[in-house]
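Thought: the user wants the 3D structure for the chain below. I'll pass the sequence to the structure tool as-is, report back what it returns, then summarize two notable features.
Action: structure_tool
Action Input:
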Amino acid sequence: MIKLRNIEKCHKTKAGFTYVLRQINLDIADGDFVTIMGPSGAGKSTLLSILGLYDHLWEGEFQFGEYPVHRLSGKERAALNKRNVGFVFQQFHLLDDLTVAENLDIPLSYRNIPKSERQAMVADALDRFNIVGKKDLFPSQLSGGQQQLVAVARAIIAKPKLLLADEPTGNLHSDQGREIMELFKKLNGEGTTVVQVTHSEANAAFGQHILRLKDGWEVKA
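Observation:
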């Protein structure tokens, strides 16, 4: 599904160039559950942004399915992202002035999906995640665990091939965090490819593969 070859990213400073990622090679097959680990500043979130087609300022080769990302225009990359990627953030990133149901509708509204079909998909997601009773509430009226549940539902409502999660349990207590990880495991079992960034060895145990980074380099076990 994904092949990265010699991916590098750097920032230009007065002192020269500071590298964030160095010579990253990574293969992710359909249905994989991959964890990216490492200390703060290792380049984990940067790599996740590249995988999600959000960050375009890098060097190397990136194959996403049949598409050579390194050769695509910004518009083509954005379209590929919308068709294939769901993203779960540590800070939830729900829109505060929209209800739960309206937040779920947002990613569907970016696609050419009729309103009636979108309403049915939102209803299905509300039912699947047991949040039907929360559909008319605003994010500020939900607990942290409930907000993250809505964030996961929003990320997968359009059935992305790739689900990315950046410290998805970082703001949750242990029981809520375990619930989210069990949900990721279930989604992965249903065929969704999952890549998560985490500091938690317990969370990493839910996946099959671990990529460890330090100072932008892959650390071999």
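Final Answer: Structure generated. The chain is about 35% helix and 25% strand. The chain has one domain: 31-60+74-218.
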